[in-house]
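Summary for the steering committee. One of the milestones for this cycle was to obtain a three-dimensional model of the protein with zinc ion bound, which we needed before selecting residues for the alanine scan. The sequence and ligand used are listed below.
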Amino acid sequence: MSGTAVVPGVLTATGHPLQRAGAWAVALLALRAGPEQVTADDLDRVAAVVVEDAVRAAMAEKNTAAYDWWKVLFALYPNSKATHSKRPRDAAALREALTSLFAADAEGPSTAEWPCTFCGARAGALWAKSTLPMFDTNTALNTLPPNVPGWPVCRGCRIAAWSLPYGAWVTAGSVTVLGCEAAGAERAFTARNMRDARRIMQLGFGARRVGARPELNAVRALRALRSDVQAAATLWTFKNDNQEPWLRVVRTCQSLAHFLAVVDSNAEPRRGWRLLELSLTRRGTDGKVVTSGPDEAARLLFEADDSHSRSLLWTLHRLLHPRENSWNVRDRAALTRLALTYAEETLGMKPHLEPVATLVADWIEHGSGSPRGRLAEYRQAALNDYHLGRLLSTAQFRLTLDGRPVATGPEDWQQFIERRPRAWEHRMLLASRVIQLIQERGVTVSDATGSIDDETERLVEQPILEPADEDLGDEMGEM
Ligand SMILES: [Zn+2]
């Protein structure tokens, strides 16, 4: 194979999440299949678009829709020529200043050359915080050593850094990018955000759907993958602020695409997901959506590294708890099935619920005193390993004494009462199944009927992962 030189492309999607998101944005702005297809001519065109949009935003009057894109740029590049308070007020001067940022890397033996910080290609420019998001700040991803003027960045990566807001989920104060092992999901996420970016430039943030969240965009992008694709999605949200820059990272499990496929193709968990979405939807007094259920539900599929996030199982547990809500048999079964599906498909749990759930349900139905009192007792103990263990012993003793068949022993109890990972989740699933069983048996423990009206039933039948008042035109260009 001698003589076959690898010709590096003008743009590489690297492992750095912000550079990677920017590279995808360049590719889609250039109408290419991926970053590696981008040509030098494409870079010229994309740089021109980026510069023109930035100039327009920088010239916009405050409190106009066009000014909202300036807020986006300010969140990313707070000290740049386009966003600085002392920026040129003359469009031609600003255009010239910005264009120079994306000039070709100078060539020739006399030129200083360094490998690009991101992709390793030859770089002729040094960039620092004013033009690179999340660089050289107190809580930054990367910080320059003292007396180093900047990071070498090649032309492709410089244009990627400024194409970032087109492919990222942006707000007036933050930016969110997706990292995923499956390139198809990154592309789909970028494409969705790009349509959003165009709309923000024209109409401002006021045109965005109320309650819209990046997690729903990411989940929809993952849903488009084949179900056997193992790929976790990571969302990086940050603000490149002068005073208090911050970064928050949340991620899904590896098998989310599979979980979504199972939910999509099975009526019961799909109904459960819709019920979850509807229960998370909040409307104002005028009937308009204030909190979007599909977006909030999608959010539950992500967990923060510090685990300070609400989990899907906990939310379902709260929903199924009879004191907070009442459900008919069908809807309780749907929500319980959803919880079980999530536990099995994404957490890899293999809960063996039936023997223990039957023991508890038998005891609630037949033990001494009233079923309502025993259910209250079980609720008190349900999520605590020690108290649940005691209750199981009591139940087994009581039922055996009464001559009722007990088809379970302490070996079945282990996964619920041992102190080990996921034991708490096991107890939560057990509680859902117990309540479902006693409801199926018609044991009266609640005054609520859990009936569902026609309008609610119509809403439950609607597709999942689609916000109530979404602009359908947005979907027409879906890739
Ligand atoms: Zn580079």
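Key point for the committee: The chain is about 50% helix and 10% strand.
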